[in-house]
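Hello,

I think I submitted the cytidine-5'-triphosphate job twice by accident. Can you confirm which output corresponds to this input? Input:
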Amino acid sequence: MQIKFNDKVNHIIKKIALKAERFGVKIYFVGGLVRDVLMGKTPLDIDILVEGNAINFVKSLDFVEIKSIHKDFGTVKTEISGVSIDFASTRIEEYPKSGCLPHVTKIGCDIKDDLIRRDFTINAIAARILPSLDYEIIDIFNGCDDISKGVLKVLHKNSYIDDPTRILRGLDFKLRFNFDFFDEDEKLIQEYLKNPDRDGLSTDRVILTLNKLFSSNERAMSAISEFSSCGYYKILFDEFLFNRENFENAIKLFNIKDIGSLCLKYILEPIEILPEFKSRLGIYKYFKNYSDIDLCVHYLKTNDNNTLIYYNELKNVKLYLKGSDLLNLGFNQGKIIGFILDKVLEAKLSKMPDLISFNDEIEFVKRTFKL
Ligand code: CTP
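Support: Only one job matched these inputs. Its output is below.
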């Protein structure tokens, strides 16, 4: 396999590979980088897997600037001549409970044992880095074949139970690459979803995975549609209400551009219990700190028309008058100041036609309130 890095990166990789050869250490690219290269894409991040202990290996390289070390996982972030390169140790992991973050049971294992802990066959291909900058493919799970077939296949039948977020990762790859889950994987997923075990589910990992899934605006609508229709929401909840038509309609009503963030919030935020609004001022004060996405999510979840009233009629109303202006007019400090400001705001919210500028507000105060 050939990898089209630029000359600077090639030079760095060669230097690392020469050292590795000298020390008798085997180093690899693995995971997304190899998958992407095999799919004809240019790799973005550079991660090097060290068969053995990456921390010791990196410390023996005199041309590397160490940025941080994560001892428990045997990983090191570095910078070499301005290029960020992450190093990881080969490791064996165990999932004591479904969905939890794995425990590392061994650092510095055989490459095969490291590959077997991974999610999909397409992500479990290693490419050994040689000083000649030839890359020797190690593909024990036939990932190359699955790339050419466009198939997403886990390495063992407990994989989705160990880490149910892999279902969402799979959905991400499916939409990104136009791949399909392997038939057996569809069955394993539906089997898991019949009886999902959420007790140990790592919230951090769920959020990380959902962030990835909804990072693309173009794919967000397909992602949330499948999240709903395929029952993937059961990883997180028993029920999930989603109607694509309503969603698309709300996106137009609130003019939402960042559809990925909308989907993410729609999934993660609980339904709010609304107070009963007695006035437009009440609606204004309640939704004042809501972003357009928050309003849209709220509208979708509650069908509450007040969100639309706020968005269309109240959101842009501004009060120029400040408490200090009222003190300058001669009002005394105290509750009266807040009371008057609210009254002016209320009048503006009810669209009083002669209440536009700062001076209009001052005039309104002078004619409405006695000093
Ligand atoms: N991995 C895994 N299970 C997970 C997350 C990650 O087995 N829940 C493994 C996979 O082998 C994956 C590698 O860790 O290839 C790196 O994960 P990550 O950086 O999240 O994704 P990439 O596969 O590199 O894909 P991309 O960054 O393009 O989304």
